[in-house]
Predict the 3D structure of the following.
Amino acid sequence: MNAEVELRKVSKLTKILETVGIELALLALIIISGVMEPKFIRSSNVINVLRQVSVTGVIAVGMTLVIINNGIDLSVCGIVGLSGMVAIILQPQGTLFAVACALAVGAVSGVINGFCISQGLAPFIMTMAMDTVLRGLAYLTSNGQPVAGVTDAYKFLGAGYMGSFMLDGKVIGLPTPVVIFILVSLLAHVMLSRTPFGRHIYSVGGNAEAARLSGISIKKTKMIVFAISGFLAALSSIMLTARMAACDPTLGTGYNVDAIAAAVIGGTSMSGGEGKIYKTVIGAMIITIMSNILNMVNVNPYVQQVVKGLIIFVTVYADNWKKTH
Amino acid sequence: MANTAPVLEFKNINKSFSGVSVLKDVSFQVRRGEIHALIGENGAGKSTLMKILSGAHTKDSGDVFIDDERVEIQNPSHARELGVSIIYQELSLIPQLNAEENVFLGSLPTRNGFVDWKTVEKEAKRVFALVNLNINTKVPVRELSAAKRQLIEVARSLLHNAKIIIMDEPTSSLTNNEVGALFASIRHMKEQGITVLYISHKLEELFTICDTITVLKDGVITGQRSVKDVTKQDLIRMMVGRDLQNYYLSRQPKIGDVALECKHLNNGRQVRDVSFSVRKGEIVGFAGLVGAGRTETMRSIFYADKLESGEIWVDGKQVHIDAPLSAIKHGIAFATEDRKTQGLVLCLPIAHNTTLASLWTIAGKHGLLDSKKETALTKDYIEKLTLRTTGPDQKVMYLSGGNQQKVVIAKWLNSGAKIYIFDEPTRGIDVGAKADIYQLMSKLADDGAAIIMISSELPEVLGVSDRIIVMHEGRIMGEVTKEEATEELVMTYAFGGS
C-alpha cells in the first residue's frame, strides 16, 4: 500500500513536469541568461529577441499543425525564398498586389503538397521535392541575383512599430512582426482547440482510418493544413524581406530545422495527434533565446549550432524515454 | 510410407489465461509422416496448443513428447532446434530478397568472411526439392505467387531439419490452382517422412489432404478420427453442440418497418450478389467463417470500401452513399471489427472520440465548439454505458478493451444513428463488459433501432440475434429464424451447405 502511495507521488511529480516542464525550462533559461549577462534584459535586446522569434515562430506555428496532422513540411524554406523574391520583384505593381502574390505562392504550394500527400506520397519526399523546385524558381526569378527596393507601406510590415508601451522607463513601440506573430498564434490556437476543423487535424493525425470512418475527409484536411503552413511561411518571408528591404534567392535556407525543432521541443508528437500551439511558441522562444545569449557571451557561432542540435536531441530522447518507461 | 510410431504426443496439457481455462487435459498422438488436421471453432484452443508446441506460450501442466522423448519447450528457437516449425498466415519473408537469400536469412554460410554462395545454391536446391518447388531462385520473392512464397517458408524450416511442420490456414489466401500445387508439395513432403499438422476451417480440403483429424471444442479433445471413417456432418457435430450459456437476454422484439434494405451488392470476390433487409427493432446476426465476406459486405454499405454495384435503401427510399460521411448522414453507424486501428483515435481523450463522428452536436457560437456541452454529454455516456474511467479527459489508449468498445458505441450513439452495424463487438473483451454490450444492443433495438451484428462466436450469434444470416465465400448461404436456429444448422450453412 505504502509503495503505491509512493508511486502515486512520483507519478504526480512526473505529471507536473510533463504538463509545465517546457515552461519551467524557458523560465530557467531566462533567469540564467539574465544572471550571466545583464544586457540580456535590456529593452533593445528583448525587442530584438521578440523580433527574431516572430519570423521563425510564424513558420513553426504552421509546422505544428502539419506535424499534429502526422506530416512534415520541408518545403517552407523554398516557400520563404520564392515568395520573398516575388514580393520584392512585384513592388512596383503596388504593395497589396505584391503581398497577395507572395502569400498565394505559399498557399498554392501547400495545396499541391497536401493533395499529393493525401494521394499517398510520403510527406518527407513530397515536400523535399517541392522545396527543391521552389528554390530553383527563386533563383530563376533574378538569375540568382539579390533584388532590393521596397515601398514604405511594405517596409512597415517588417520594420514598423504598432502601439507603444513602457519598458526600462522608456516608451517603445511593438514591432509589426511581433504583433503579427501574436495574432497568428492566437488564431491558430483557437482554430486548433475550439473549431471542428481543429479536431479534424488531431484525429486525422492520430488515426487517419478511424477519422475517415467517422466521416472526416482526409484529403480536405491535409490540403488545408499544408496550405496554412505554406501561407504562414510566405507571411514570414514578407516580414523578413520587408525589414531588409531586399531579398536574396537563398533566403530561408535551414528554416525548416528551426520550425521543426520549435514544435518538437514544445512536445508535438512526431507520430501525430498531439501538440499545442502555445507550447510551440515557447519552443521557438527557447531556441531564439539560446542563440541570443550564446551570441552575447561571445560563443563561437559554430558551437551554437552544436548546442541547438543537442537541445533537439535531448528533448526527443526524454520524450521517447517517457513513452517507453 | 506412414510409420505407426508417434513422432509427437501431447499428454494432459492444461493452459489457462488469467483464470480462464483454454486447454483442459488435452492428450493425443501424431504419427510420423502423416498429415494431421486439427480443427475446432474460433476460440476452441487450436492456436493456443500450437503456440505451446512452437514455444510461443508455455503450458501450465502436462507433457509433450517428441520422438518418445519428453521435452520442455522453452521458446521459439528451442522449438526449432527440436525440429518443430510453424508457418504463419502472415508470411515472414523479406519481399525484396530472392528465394535463396530468404531461405538462408540470418544463417548465411561464409568462407573467409564472404558469403559462400556455392553452398547456398546447393543447399537451397536440396530443400526446394523436398517441397517439390520449381522456381527461379534469383528473382525477388515479391514477384512469386502466394503459394510459392509459402513453400519457400516451409523450405526454410526444412533447412534447419524440421520434422514437424505446423501450417495454420495455409490455403486462406490461395486460388484453387495454387491450392492444388500446395497439396502436391505437402504430399511430397509426407513421402520424405515429414509430419504436417494442418489447421483449417475448410472442411472439404481436409478430406483431400489429411490422414487423421483431431477435433477440439472449448479446450477439450472431442474426438480423433481417420479421414476414411468420418463425414462432414460428424465433424460439425463434434465441433459444436454445447450448452448455451445464460447471459444472453431473452427479449420480445417489437419488429417494425424495414429500416435498411440491400439489393444485389457486389464487391470483388468477397461480396457476391448479397441481398438482405433489416427491420426496426430487430437484431440480425451475421454468421460465417472468417473470410466469408461479412465484414466486406458491411464495409461496402458504409463506403469504407468502394461498392462495385448494388442498391441500398434506407426507410424505403433508395440512397446514394459515396463516402462514410453520407452513410452517417443517413443514420448508419459502423462499429468496426478492430477498434484500435479503425474505431478510435487512441491518443485523444474519451470526449474527443465520443464526438468524433458528430461534431455538429457540440456546435456553439461563432463556429466554435462548445466544450462544456461536450464534457457534459460525455459524462452522460460514461454513466449510461458504465464506462470505467477517470473522466472525459482520459486518453482512450489507457482504457481496457471493453471500455474502449464502449467509447466506440458512445461515438455512434452520439451520431444519432438509427441503423447500427456491430462487427465482432465483443472480441477480446471480458465477460462483464460482454453482458453490458448485449444489454445495450437489445435496448437499442427495443428503442426502434435496426441492428446488424457480425460475430464469429456461435453461442453469441444464437443468443443475441432475432434472425441469423449465414454467409459463405461472399454469398448468403441461408437465413435462419431464432426458433429454428441450432449451432449445427448455422455451421452447415457456414461450411457451404450440405
Q: What stands out?
A: The longest helix of chain A spans residues 2-36. The longest strand of chain A covers residues 161-167. Strands of chain A lie at 147-148, 161-167, 170-175, 246-247. Residues 39-324 of chain A form a domain with the ABC transporter involved in vitamin B12 uptake, BtuC fold (CATH 1.10.3470).
